Each structure stands twice: as C-alpha cells, then as structure tokens.
Amino acid sequence: MTTPDSPSASDAAAQPTAATIRPDRVRSALRFYQVMAIVAGIALFILIAIIVINRGFGKGGASAVWSPIHGFIYIFYVASIANLGFASRWPLIRMVGNMLTGFVPVLPFIAERRVTRSTRELLARADTLQP
C-alpha cells in the first residue's frame, strides 16, 4: 500500500532513473537533438515566410521547393526526439508531446531549452552514481 508521500509504482516507472541510462548515449542523443531543434525551428520560420510571401504577394514556386526540404528536416527532428527519448527512458507521451512542438513556431526553441535542462539534470544524477 502506498502512502501519499511515497511514489506509486506507475510514478516510478514513468520517471527515468539515473542508474538505468547510459550517459554517453544520452549525451550524444542530446547533442543531435539540440542541433535538430534549432534547425527545425529555423526551417519552420522560413516555411512560414515563404507561405506569407506566396499568399500575400502572389509569388509562387519557393513553396514547392522548400516544403519537401522542411519535411525532411522535420523527420530528422522527430528522429532526434525519439533517439533522446529512448536513451533517456522517457514515457511515450513525453516523446509525442515534444514531437508536436515542431508544428508551432518558437516552440522548438523553448522545448530545446527545457529538454536540455532536464537532461543535464538527469546526467548529473547519473554521474554521481558512476564509480
């Protein structure tokens, strides 16, 4: 039986523990994620600018070129989130939530800062457990 002060089994399963991760893999995944978050955020701004130019000024063509490029960048962004999520032992809902940040301008930058902060805290805990 759990008390209000003790974590339940589902809470413990949802939180990654520093002992269950490989810090070298998490650090590598974090670097890839950081780069892709910045690139995806910039690519989204470029896509929005192209759409505004196409709709507002009637200029076409650039969207047909940039949209597939942006799509490939987003796929790599999603892959970087999945890579970091599996390395850090995130719950699936956290990974999906982070993947959805790629649809809203500015959110990839905000998410990157928060994810980096929480991942570095996880790594700091893992480093204290290493012999």
Can you put this structure into words, describing what you see?
The protein is mostly helical and 131 residues long. It is 76% helix and 0% strand. It has helices at residues 9-14, 23-57, 62-88, 92-99, 107-129. Helix 2 (23-57) packs antiparallel against helix 3, helix 2 (23-57) runs antiparallel to helix 5 (107-129) and helix 3 (62-88) runs antiparallel to helix 4 (92-99).
Question: Any chance you could write out the topology, listing elements then pairs?
Answer:
Elements: H1 9-14, H2 23-57, H3 62-88, H4 92-99, H5 107-129
Helix pairs in contact: 2-3, 2-5, 3-4
Helix content: over 70%
Rg from Cα: 19 Å
Kindly state the number of beta strands: 0
Could you state the order of secondary-structure elements as H and E? HHHHH
Main beta sheet: none
Shape: elongated
Uncertain ranges: 1-14
| Overall average pLDDT | 84
The tally of helices reads 5
Structural class: mainly alpha
Measured between the Cα atoms of the first and last residue, the distance is: 34 Å
Please give the oligomerization state of what you see. single chain
Descriptive key words:
131 residues; mainly alpha; 5 helices; 76% helix; 0% strand
In brief:
The protein is mostly helical and 131 residues long. It has five helices and no strands. The protein has helices at residues 9-14, 23-57, 62-88, 92-99, 107-129.
